Amino acid sequence: MARSGSRQLVLLLCLSAAPLAAQNLDSVTIKRQRLADGVYVLMGSGGNIGLSAGQDGAFLIDDEYAPLSERIKAAVRGVSTGPIRFVINTHWHGDHTGANASFAGDGTMIVAQENVRKRMSAEQFIAAFNSKVPPSPVAALPVITFSESMTFYLNGDTVDVLHAKAAHTDGDALIRFRRANVIHMGDTFFNGNYPFIDVSTGGSLDGMIAAADQGLALADDNTRIIPGHGPVGGRAELKAYREMLATVRLRIARARIEGQTAEQVVNANLLADLDSTWGKGFLTSAQFAAIAYSAVQRP
Q1: What is the spatial distance between Cα 121 and Cα 135, in angstroms, rounded to a whole number?
Q2: Tens digit of pLDDT for each residue in 36-80?
Q3: Is 161 exposed, middle or buried (CB count within 10 Å of its CB: 0-12, 13-18, 19+)?
Q4: SS3 of the chain
Q5: Could you tell me the CA-to-CA distances from 7 to 14, 36, 44, 45, 155 in Å, in that order?
Q6: What gap in Å lies between CA 98 and CA 68, rounded to an integer?
Q7: What is the domain range of residue 145?
Q8: In the predicted model, is pLDDT for residue 101 greater than 80?
Q9: Rounded to an integer, what distance in angstroms lies between the CA atom of residue 50 and that of residue 42?
Q10: CA angle in degrees (0–180, nearest 5) for 147-153-157
Q11: In this structure, what CATH number is given to the domain that contains residue 257?
């Protein structure tokens, strides 16, 4: 398969239902990294998982794919003997919600922004990759939803869950641990790579920039920031990412004002100077330029 085709396949696996990805998950191990007292990140295949473990039990932020659920649970047991009480989904994509049903079967409560439940309840279409995503099983759906914000008081910390509007999707959530000084950005932050923006389900480039601003406003120089994909970063990495997004938006908006089509923008290679830093992920420069063209809300 050509390189561009293989990158497209990776993205489709990330967006599709868990069974489609299962064939590639046999050798995946779940790695655990401590970020603060009682707060960890778990990395396997799919979106990065946040974990809080303490006297009140454990809760997760996202849960990757269904075939990894037992491995994720084992990683949690390495630091917590209590129940996994909640899973908070940062958005609806299958690489962040695929194990929902498995955790729900153990009595874990699934929590998400209200648009996540709506998206998971019906077939979705990802226009950027001409891909249909079937509805999730009822057992995987969030049973607690919020509109703009909610707060958890668990394991000695205050945990803020905040809606980031029209960013990666229309149901993104940012999660901040106040005491631990850790933020999970979900897929509003791809650390070191061009991000995917799911315009078909309410995402936008303006919203991605606004989400980065939201995260920066919550962070200080000591904050550990978990991206949806990529290594854990800090305020400096999030700021650099935000500046890249703003640069891309300016260039694409100017091209649209000049009347250029998406094809012309892609062929113009407007992001060439950014590629060495940001173009090493699963999206090529051309793919991201095309997505960004459709993701600019207004010239």
Answers
A1: 5
A2: 999 999 999 999 999 999 999 999 999 999 999 999 999 999 999
A3: buried
A4: CCHHHHHHHHHHHHHCCHHHHHCCCCCCCCEEEEEECCEEEEECCCCCEEEEEECCEEEEECCCCHHHHHHHHHHHHCCCCCCEEEEECCCCCHHHHCCHHHHHHCCCEEEEEHHHHHHHCCCEEEHHHCEEECCCCHHHCCCEEECCEEEEEECCEEEEEEEECCCCCCCEEEEEECCCCEEECHHHCECCCCCCCCHHHCCCHHHHHHHHHHHHHHCCCCCEEECCECCCECHHHHHHHHHHHHHHHHHHHHHHHCCCCHHHHHHHCCCHHHHHHHCCCCCCHHHHHHHHHHHCCCC
A5: 11, 34, 18, 15, 40
A6: 9
A7: 3-295
A8: yes
A9: 6
A10: 120
A11: 3.60.15.10
Positive or negative, the Cα torsion across 207, 287, 62, 42? negative
> What pLDDT, on a 0 to 100 scale, did the predictor assign at position 129?
82
Question: Total structural domains in the chain?
Answer: 1
Reported as a single tens digit per residue, the pLDDT across 189-240 is 999 999 999 999 999 999 999 999 999 999 999 999 999 999 999 999 999 9
pTM score, whole prediction: 0.92
